[in-house]
Automatic annotation (TrEMBL):
InterPro entries recorded: Lamin_tail_dom, Lamin_tail_dom_sf
Alphabetized Pfam families for the sequence: LTD (PF00932)
Name of the featured protein: Lamin Tail Domain
Keywords in alphabetical order: Signal
Leader peptide range in chain numbering: 1-29
PROSITE patterns named in the record: LTD
Domain of life: Bacteria
Domain LTD: residue ranges: 23-144
Length: 152
């Protein structure tokens, strides 16, 4: 085999190996994840601490996988360490759940922290989502007073 054919064969072999190594990572990325989706940190109107105002402050968590995910024991925390811990709860495939600051009756789409004061600062903060084992799953930070929410 001449030198140019050997180089061409080596390049084809290297590309095949690289493709085989990258394929699982691409498949994992397309499979989706459970992650922070949106933080609505500045509820509309004056901060009056009414329950409706508190519940207009929330964090949405999305499940972009094709399977339901148990969030039992998962935590959502802000930079000041206000922590919400999920009880028995399953987030459906391709669904979102809003974790609201105030009081209410938990549903599949809304969970309530039951607080009487705001959690998310109106100017900057960081949300951290951790699994039941304490592993950091996702973080989302904002630093703005120009808008009331952050897409993560």
């Amino acid at each position: 085999m001449n030198r140019s054919r050997m180089l061409a064969a080596a390049a084809v072999a290297a590309a095949a190996v690289a493709g085989a190594l990258l394929a699982p990572a691409q498949a994992d990325a397309s499979a989706g994840s459970v992650h922070l989706y949106k933080i609505y940190y500045n509820s509309p109107g004056s901060d009056t601490r009414t329950n409706s105002s508190l519940n207009a402050e929330y964090v949405q968590i999305a499940n972009t996988t094709s399977k339901s995910a148990s969030l039992k024991g998962w935590t959502l925390t802000d930079a000041s360490r206000h922590t919400y811990t999920f009880g028995t709860y399953t987030l459906g495939a391709h669904k979102t759940v809003a974790v609201r600051t105030g009081k209410g009756t938990n549903t599949a789409a809304n969970r309530y922290q039951g607080r009487a004061a705001y959690v998310w600062n109106n100017d900057k903060d960081t949300a951290t989502l951790r699994s039941s084992k304490g592993t950091k799953v996702d973080t989302c930070s904002y630093n703005s007073t120009r808008v009331a929410y952050k897409m993560c």
